[in-house]
Fold this sequence. Notes:
This protein has helices at about 10-20, 40-45, 80-85, 95-100, 120-140, 165-180, 185-195, 200-210, 215-230, 235-245, 255-275, 275-280, 320-325; strands at about 55-60, 70, 75-80, 100-105, 120, 150, 310, 355-360. By secondary structure, it is mainly alpha-helical. It has 2 domains: about 1-35 and about 50-215, no CATH class; about 220-360, no CATH class. The strands form 3 sheets. The protein has a 3-stranded antiparallel sheet with strand order 2-1-5, with no helix packed on it. Strands 4-3-6 form a 3-stranded mixed sheet, with no helix packed on it. It has a two-stranded parallel sheet with strand order 7-8. A hairpin with a 5-residue loop joins strand 1 and strand 2 (about 70). The site of zinc ion has 8 residues, from loops.
Amino acid sequence: MVVYRKNGINPLLISIVTNKDLSEIPPSPPESMLPGVYAKQVCKNLGSMRKALPERKHKLTCVACGRNGQYNLGLMAFDLAKYLSFSKGNDKSDQSAWASSIQFSGYFRCHYCNSGCWQLPNQTKTMLQIAVMGHALALKAKIKKEEEIVVGRFTTFDGESFFWATEVEEHFLHKLSKEPDNAWIWDRLGNIYIKGGRLDLAVVAFEESIKQDPCQMESHYSLGKILLEAGAKDAATLHLRRVLLTARDYDHLTPLAMRDLLTDALFMLFDILSDLNKLVEFIPKGNEFSNESPESCHDQKPVTVHFMDIDISVDEFEGMYPLAELYMGKHQKKLAPDVQTLYPTQSNTNKLMKEIKKKSSKKKRKRKK
Length: 369
Ligand SMILES: [Zn+2]
């Protein structure tokens, strides 16, 4: 009997996370089989959560069962260079050249057989071609368009490039089946699910990531962000706090990206606590970074986060930078001097958090996305 599933799940994902043989997992597993603590809560709230990808529904034909269905392709990347190299000397309307130069971020599986391989019907190819032409004309005329199309190519961290998000997922799951303890790949897989609009699968990957490495800062951040949107404030708070605790030992981000991520985490905590004093009381202090602390991740020498006489503001994103920089450890010194907001001369180790000055303003807070 064919079971219709709106949101398909790859049985291999469940197999790797649960360490069960693939033969023990149904070919089209239900949501209730998703492992981990958070997936069920996110599934329940998925409908009310902010859409992670633009709506671009089109008809696709499943290669495995031949059935047609409407699927949200999400963000489309158009590789102009590849298109031009393919179509050189050929008819520029050649649809095979055209179709090989596009990619989609949306993650979806066949509603009927759970496969992830697709053919683009000619009608869909034509509609997509028109969409790209419209986007190109708008760019030329400098008219702002919705961000549904990007000119360029989606590539993975290891330099691979795929047509469908399900292919990227297979690529990562294949790697993870050989090294299931690689938190970095779990984190990358989680990001693919976010970009594919599947926050329920993303939390599974991020949870697995921090199970393998409790110091995977980016996974804590992503979990905090998704759980906050899903209304799970307590769980979100836990992970956002761990972003602050794990930053100093995390080596996968540029200093600027790390500061932005910490700042965003601080603002999310501020939104939850609704008060700057409560935020300052809540965020980790020096003794929590010591070896003895269960919250500490790595067995390194004890460190201290000093609360100095610093100015922070919640009116704009950059206003929280000094507080974010306090948690960067060695990475803070790698920020170019002209972008640093925290200077050694400001240091005063004995001052307490109450000395953090607040700049009040009636201006609406402007924050980065
Ligand atoms: Zn199918």
